[in-house]
User: Fold this.
Amino acid sequence: VLTRLEQLYNAEFCLDDPVIRSYLYRATFYNEPLDEIMNIIQMSLPVSFKRRLDQEEEGGRRKYDVVVLK
Assistant:
């Protein structure tokens, strides 16, 4: 899902946890804002999205760290 969201919303997600990365997650969204989609993902997986504000965005690309909640 994150790979597709990167393409559709000009975003970049950094997820280093191999366990979460191996999850199979399917979803269908129609014209939903990225923030709404991330909220839905946060409700269904033990992750949180943190926007990187300290880095300059290249070409308007928003960057997020995907933090695994323990």
Summary: The chain is about 35% helix and 25% strand. The radius of gyration is 12 Å. The first strand starts at residue 11 and ends at 14. The chain has a mean pLDDT of 87.
